[in-house]
Amino acid sequence: MLKKRMIAVLILRDGQVVQSVKFKHTNVIHYDPVHAMEAFNKWAVDEIVLLNVSREEETAAPFADVMARISRHCFVPLSAGGWIKDEDYAQRLLRSGADKLVLNTAFADNPGLVQGLSRRFGRQCIVASMDVKREDGMSLIAVDRGRRVIRSRPVDWARQCVEAGAGEIFFNSIDHDGARRGYDLETLREVTGAVDVPVIAFGGVFTWDHLAEGYEAGAAAVAAANIFHYKEQATRAAKSYLAERGYLVRNEGRAFG
Amino acid sequence: MVAIIDYGLGNLFSLANALEAVGGKPVLTSDPDAVLKAERVILPGVGAIAEAVQTLGASGMDETVREVARRGTPLLGVCLGMQLLCSRSTEDGEHEALGIIPADVLRLSEAGGLKVPHIGWNAIEPTREHPLLGGLAPGSDVYFVHSYFVSCRNEADVLAYTEYGARFASMIARDNVMGAQFHPEKSQFVGLKMLENFLEI
């Protein structure tokens, strides 16, 4: 049986792990992302997503270097995103140890790039990050780290992303990001019902029960960022909570015990 | 020395990195001579099988891999690399693979609402004891990412099964030739132990 995944997200601005609240990044959580990653790698996390949210494109090259440093210590799947604007840079991230590429704005501005990457590296390599934003009582899509709203319904957008070559959807909500009230379950449920590919839920987790709610809404994987940084062994505690409630989580094997 | 065959596909960095973490000395190479001289060979791969077959054929690496298998050198195919060891694949048409293990590569079924690709952690249930599985408990979870699976024509070639809708061969082994459909380099303790075992075969 396939296990329910739990994913830790590292949000990097200028090479430092930061806290994200409604897509604003203020508090620096870790000065060195390698430390954060090492902790997660030990603590039962099933996968790591590394996002470069810096506003400046010049951060792309140093981010790839950080990737290379991080991936050396990472023996779970690692996804990377931010500033992927051409195939060369995508290739560079893969060569630096990324297993999957997380693309967001490219789905709006350069679907040809996504299609090309999907053909070349396979759709399992392409994660479509979609940011949902509430406006005028509707759920819409925002790109460019929330700066540009596209008048497309999340369900249609998700289908479009899959059509363009995405193998997974990384679902986030700008309103829920850092708001500590759990995922945007209503929209999440619509999206998981609309596509055949796995959906990763993200944005708003403050209690372990929020993770369970993500699974109940049809997510194949639940992700969190801020919450995992503040407690020792947080990811392990979250896993135990989920296991106790009957969710099938990974048997770690413990070969080196 | 472990040769990791570099034919431009897949995250070789992770595989090399994981082998180093368990004391191996991996060398990424696209040189058939270097592959033939290696004590152990890993055939990795991610992506489309047609392109992989074509690339391997263009450099003569396909024949090199067959020769490695014939010579008795431990050979491990990982993910697409395991599928390449088979006879043929139905991915985007019909493609001949390397034909080392009599098996067909078929698409996973979406019946019952299953999502394809099969992405995530799933358990392996070994069919027998094998050096590759030393120190590992049945039911250990490993990390999968694939849309196609291997169907062995001889059940004896199956080393482990995994359940995803239907049961499929997640590991194969015949003499010196082995394959893992999942990614040991991304399967944390379980995968690292398996790679460590491979270095001792």
Outline the structure in words:
The complex is a heterodimer of chains A (257) and B (201). Chain A is an alpha/beta fold. Chain A is built from ten helices and twelve strands. Chain A has a single domain (5-244), classed as TIM Barrel (Alpha-Beta Barrel). An eight-stranded parallel beta barrel of chain A has the order 1-4-5-6-7-10-11-12, surrounded by seven helices. Chain A starts with a strand and ends in a 13-residue tail after the last helix. Chain B has 201 residues and is of the alpha/beta class. Chain B has a single domain (2-199), classed as 3-Layer(aba) Sandwich (Rossmann fold), CATH 3.40.50. Helices cover 27% and strands 32% of the residues of chain B. Chain B is built from six helices and 14 strands. Chain B has an eight-stranded mixed β-sheet, sandwiched between helices. A four-stranded mixed β-sheet of chain B has the order 6-5-7-11. Chain B has a two-stranded antiparallel ribbon with strand order 8-10. In chain B, 55% of the residues are buried. Chains A and B meet through helix 5 of A and helix 1, strand 8, strand 10 and helix 6 of B.
What descriptors fit this protein?
heterodimer, A: 257 residues, alpha/beta, TIM Barrel, 12 strands, 35% helix, globular, B: 201 residues, Rossmann fold, four-stranded mixed sheet, 6 helices
Do you know the CATH topology of chain A? TIM Barrel
Strand runs of chain A, count: 12
Count of β-strands of chain B: 14
The name of the CATH topology of chain B is Rossmann fold
Proportion of residues in extended strands of chain B = 25-35%
Major sheet of chain B: size, sense and barrel closure?
A: 8 strands, mixed
Poorly predicted parts of chain B: none
| Mean pLDDT reading of chain B | 94
Biggest sheet strand line-up of chain B: 2-1-3-4-14-13-12-9
